[in-house]
Structure to design on (594 residues):
């Protein structure tokens, strides 16, 4: 399963409480859609660190890296690369 | 500060006269001076009058923290109306309920709010809708709506307001309520001015202060941060999200912030994710904490991380405008765990169930008297009568006062859930969950959480033969309720524990795991 698929599934199940992929576009902004608040972001970070074996540094916690499924997938790829 | 002020408008007018060129607000790198802010407030007030806003007419704001929110808020007051600040994180049904209950005739809204189309379709009493400018693309062709800039351009900037009657309602803030029992806290001009001036005094705010603000203005805490800084002639830098905590601290450093205000979960998040030592926060002279009790351990960690800033632990309630008490920083060590003494002009007593004051050290209900106490709940005399008794606001908080007048809170007499900055009525959650087919009974409670204080657990007794998935319950709530009200835990139980009189024993459900 690709990172994007896994991340989308995680966000859908834990923040939209659904498995319907039509509810979350790969480029949808979590901030703009009000999907993930500050404590939700901590849960996302924990998921990324546990599922993909990466460590997210404070300075990497920026919307460019984390504000959509595709951005997270690209970020994981860069970290694992 | 303007002497003899009878409204927040007088306080803003005074700051604009004294500091016309100083920055009032900054957001996304753009600033607005006091002269510009005051000019736009006058124009917006005149636009509201020209649009037919009646005296004490209600204007609802569905706008995140922004210069437009501030302009609209003060303009409504100046036009003699009542401003209704709606919680922008709420869903359509919750918002429609508030708009209908207060009878708002005007709505100022962000065009990007997802609930807006449904809201406009369901709120037939709205005569005018004003759309604020947004960075994101606005919804095209919203019928009957006027764009912010066009709206402002329809009016001149004459300052036509006379003195506002301080006893008239100025603001309605909807707190946790249900369909049948809405709680629109109604504050007068006097309430707002008195609380603003009292807070200003103990925080010693001046025009040199600059706060990075993350608190929503539609809550009483954020509301008080806004008014106090504008009354002092200080600056507010608007950061609307804590999702990326170190960006907020970076802004504090870049903007040379002198102040920062948060609820316990704000500070818990920052301490968990940010190394303060990596940032230049040498200008930070004060921190304020309210919105629920902060664990003494967290208070100590915060002081250790930011030793140069004076930390004001505070206590308040929307029904008391915002602020009731504060702990002077110089007493923080010997009075740690208390929420301090009454703010200037506010009396605090602890009452027994008969309504009599108890002796120092004895627990009872915390009651408050002063110019900060609300007029009542909008159009809900029964709910008002329960909390305003014999000239006192009965807070529902249980506490005790020591011999020096320092208040300690030990619990709540109500079942209200406190999660992060939010106060949630369990009845509202239960009302939504009971809409689901397959739910026979349910009860919502708050359970302890290290960051948020409490998170919501809903315990459900399924109907016979029904099969329910926890996620289906959460998805249903998410469609109807603001995100912070969606239960974090869904637990299925055979029965709800009840007292002999049939009341649910909620404390037992907190232990169900």
């Amino acid at each position: 399963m690709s990172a994007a698929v896994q991340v989308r599934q995680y966000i859908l199940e834990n923040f939209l409480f659904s498995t319907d992929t039509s509810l979350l576009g790969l480029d949808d902004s979590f901030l703009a859609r009000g999907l993930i608040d500050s404590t939700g972001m901590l849960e996302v970070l924990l998921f990324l660190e546990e599922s993909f074996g990466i460590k997210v540094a404070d300075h990497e916690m920026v919307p460019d890296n984390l504000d959509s499924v595709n951005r997270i997938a690209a970020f994981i790829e860069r970290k694992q690369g | 500060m303007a002497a003899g002020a009878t409204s927040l408008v007088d306080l803003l007018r005074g700051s604009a006269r004294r500091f016309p060129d100083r920055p009032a607000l900054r957001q996304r790198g753009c600033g607005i001076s006091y002269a510009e802010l005051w000019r736009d407030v006058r124009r917006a007030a005149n636009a509201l009058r020209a649009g037919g806003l009646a005296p004490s007419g209600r204007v609802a704001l569905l706008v995140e923290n922004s210069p437009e929110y501030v302009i609209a808020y003060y303009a409504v007051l100046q036009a003699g109306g009542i401003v209704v600040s709606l919680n922008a994180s709420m869903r359509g049904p919750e918002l429609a309920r508030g708009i209908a209950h207060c009878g708002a005739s005007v709505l100022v809204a962000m065009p990007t709010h997802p609930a807006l189309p449904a809201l406009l379709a369901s709120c037939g009493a709205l005569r005018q809708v004003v759309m604020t400018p947004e960075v994101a693309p606005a919804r095209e062709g919203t019928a009957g709506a006027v764009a912010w800039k066009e709206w402002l351009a329809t009016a001149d900037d004459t300052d036509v307001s006379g003195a506002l009657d301080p006893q008239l309602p100025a603001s309605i803030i909807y707190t946790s309520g249900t369909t049948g029992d809405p709680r629109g806290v109604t504050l007068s001009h006097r309430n707002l001015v008195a609380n603003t001036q009292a807070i200003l005094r103990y925080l010693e705010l001046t025009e040199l202060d600059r706060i990075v603000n993350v608190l929503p203005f539609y809550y009483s805490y954020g509301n008080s941060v806004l008014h106090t800084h504008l009354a002092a002639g200080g600056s507010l830098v608007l950061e609307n999200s804590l999702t990326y905590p170190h960006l907020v601290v970076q802004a504090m450093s870049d903007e040379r912030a002198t102040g920062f205000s948060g609820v316990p979960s704000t500070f818990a998040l920052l301490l968990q994710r940010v190394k303060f030592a990596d940032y230049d926060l040498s200008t930070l002279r004060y921190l304020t904490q309210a919105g629920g009790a902060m664990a003494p351990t967290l208070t100590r960690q915060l002081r250790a991380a930011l030793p140069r800033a004076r930390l004001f632990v505070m206590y308040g309630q929307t029904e008391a405008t915002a602020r009731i008490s504060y702990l002077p920083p110089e007493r923080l060590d010997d009075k740690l765990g208390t929420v301090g003494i009454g703010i200037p002009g506010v009396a605090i007593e602890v009452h027994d169930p008969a309504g009599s004051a108890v002796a120092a050290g004895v627990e009872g209900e915390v009651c408050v008297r002063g110019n900060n106490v609300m007029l009542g709940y909008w159009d809900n005399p029964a709910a008002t009568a329960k909390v305003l008794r014999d000239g006192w606001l009965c807070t529902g908080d249980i506490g005790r006062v020591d011999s020096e007048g320092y208040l300690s809170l030990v619990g709540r007499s109500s079942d209200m859930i406190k999660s992060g900055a939010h106060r949630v009525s369990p009845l509202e959650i239960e009302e939504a969950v009971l809409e689901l087919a397959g739910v026979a009974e349910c009860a919502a409670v708050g359970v302890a959480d290290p960051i948020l204080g409490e998170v919501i657990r809903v315990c459900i007794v399924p109907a016979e033969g029904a099969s329910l998935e926890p996620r289906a319950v959460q998805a249903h709530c998410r469609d109807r309720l603001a995100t912070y009200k969606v239960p974090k835990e869904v637990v299925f139980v055979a029965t709800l524990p009840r007292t002999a009189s049939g009341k649910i024993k909620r404390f037992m459900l907190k232990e169900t795991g």
Remarks:
- Residues 38-52 of chain A form the longest helix (15 residues).
- Chain A touches chain B through 23 residues (CB under 8 Å).
